[in-house]
Amino acid sequence: MTWNVYLSGEIHSDWRDQIIAGATERGLPVSFSSAVTDHAASDAAGDRLGPDSQGYWRDHKSAKVNAIRTRTLIAKADLAVVRFGGQYRQWNAAFDAGMCAALGKPYITLHDEEFVHALKEVDGAAMAWATTPEQVVDTLEYATD
Fold first, then answer.
1. H runs (alpha helix) in the chain
2. What is the CATH number of the domain that holds 35?
3. Range of 111's domain?
4. C-alpha to C-alpha distance for 42 and 38, rounded to whole angstroms
5. 12 in helix, strand or coil?
6. CB–CB of 39/11 below 8 Å?
7. Total-model pTM
């Protein structure tokens, strides 16, 4: 069986690349999917539906267009990894974790210890909490063995 792993969350570091490279190096039976990680492209996703003069409506349309991809890929995933970084607050990642919990999809949270208190509910529904991409790869290796 090839596991479909959805990578959610922070887009300003290379954590996705580290997990993908680690899984590839170990020959794990996994494939990966993700939200659009180009920030400007994600923000402009709704522009295909016509221009808006107010930021709220542009963001609203873009969120819905992005959700087509996100909801579909999470629904198809066997497991998700949800990354919370320190530079920005990833409200979308928290939403993705909630969607996983509601769908009964197992997920791993990936964040520094400083966010344990803020993410207690998100971590409480997670199957594991990792602090490094290598720990995620280790967990994937165990789960897929």
1. 15-25, 39-43, 55-76, 91-103, 120-125, 133-144
2. 3.40.50.450
3. 3-144
4. 6
5. coil
6. yes
7. 0.93
